[in-house]
Amino acid sequence: SRTWCAVIVGSTAVPEASAEEGRHGRRSSEQLALPPELVDELVEEALVWCSQHGLIVGDKNHPRSGKAPGVGLLHAPFSLLPMSFPKFYWDQALELAPLFNELVDRVSLDGEFLQQTLARTKEVDLFTKRLLDIHSEMMELKKEEEIRLGLTRSDYMVDGETGLLLQVELNTISTSSNGLACGVSELHRNLVRMHERELGLDQASVLGNTAITQHAGALARAWAEYNNPRNGCPVALVYFRAGYSPIDYPSEAEWRARTLIERSSAIKCPSISYHLVGTKKIQQELAKEYVLDRFFDNKGDIKKVRQCFAGLWNLENDSIVMSAIESPELFVLKPQREGGGNNIYGDNLHETLVRLRKDGGNELAAYILMQRIFPPASPCYLVREGKCAKENAVSEFGVFGAYLRNKDKVIINDQCGYLMRTKAAALNEGGVVSGYAFLNSIFLT
Ligand code: ADP
Ligand code: MG
Ligand code: MG
After folding, report:
1. Residues 382 and 426 in one domain
2. How many whole angstroms separate alpha carbon 171 and alpha carbon 280?
3. Is 366 in the same domain as 341?
4. In three state form, how does the secondary structure of 100-111 look?
5. Is residue 28 part of a domain?
6. Does the pLDDT of residue 180 top 60, yes or no?
7. Residue 397: pLDDT band by 50, 70, 90 thresholds?
8. In terms of residue numbers, what domain contains 322?
9. Using omega within 30 degrees of 0 as the cis cutoff, is the peptide bond preceding 270 cis?
10. Ligand 1 pocket test target in 155, 169, 367, 433 with most atoms within 8 Å of CB
11. Which atom of ligand 1 is nearest to the CA of 373?
């Protein structure tokens, strides 16, 4: 069965859901009927584990959080138990990871494609313009990056209607949560180990996660490729944990720093080109028919990649804009931003499109429209700020990737573990750090 559901408790067997049940998200809540005393016990054990093992994030409600090290910390929001996930999707997403890594690299080398595709967006989105300006400066300088390192994450949701695994987006900068993702699978293994019989689960079935060691390994390998052990002297590698959002550039100084880094001989993770490949606008352009043919020779690869593309449109297509105005619940309106909390949904989407259309056009180019994906929902115990609530929840599945290349030699092109995020079905957005989603881990069925 290609359906997924929250962990099934109280039996050693995991009942299969019928395709019909999965499509409509009608999974009965008895599947998750844990005795309240067991829930309390699990929650307490989990909270202690999080504190002891650093599964923590900054506490937004604490005035000194983020200002003083070790102050204002809170356990990361998590799902109490791992969830079942069909091996079918797992295999598919893993197979796609090296293809998307390769795609990022190929698109990054096509400077004209990046400039042309983002040309109209640039006119109305100052942030994208600044990034493109750095990019065109590098094109003028004929700057080539011989060693290229990508730490990526391709995010997916299962579309409940068709059962297809659809890509939400491809991240190429600051692909976060690798540490948290590894932590939550350890947390779940530990809880399951202590309650194997009551939960009807085997700890070994909770999938381990290698994201953090593989990403760290790729960074180290890139440093080795740079091959200049005089450190303290030239900088071999720059990793961007910020720089994807306008607020990361409060003054010209930050833009100068970004340009300086880009002009330097250091390996950039990501380079300006890799960064731009991850924009929503490029995602939308790549989803147009035949565009992938420009970057892949193998028809089989093109087919596999295209299969996971959801409906994506630019807003110059007035008939799609009208459809979105009429049925905003079926679409997501996305600006060229990262980090969660930027997309526009529902009534807001309707109003925004009506206004942009009335204003006469140009500003529409700052956005893309995407088909809204509705993953099947199932009940789940979700823990935030020490409190556990049972919610009807949906999940987003990300696969980390690493790509390292030195001139013609591909040194690493791998999948690097996963990120499972679960959120209340009624919510729109889905980031963990941005406060919407809960970390989760999986066992394959
Ligand atoms: P960001 O780069 O800010 O993470 P995303 O495209 O991943 O932008 O959107 C943020 C969140 O919005 C996702 O994690 C997901 O929960 C939700 N979302 C995005 N696109 C869709 C979609 N097409 N259908 C349903 N939910 C979506
Ligand atoms: Mg993103
Ligand atoms: Mg995202």
Report:
1. yes
2. 10
3. yes
4. HHHHHHHHHCCH
5. no
6. yes
7. very high
8. 311-372
9. yes
10. 169
11. 24
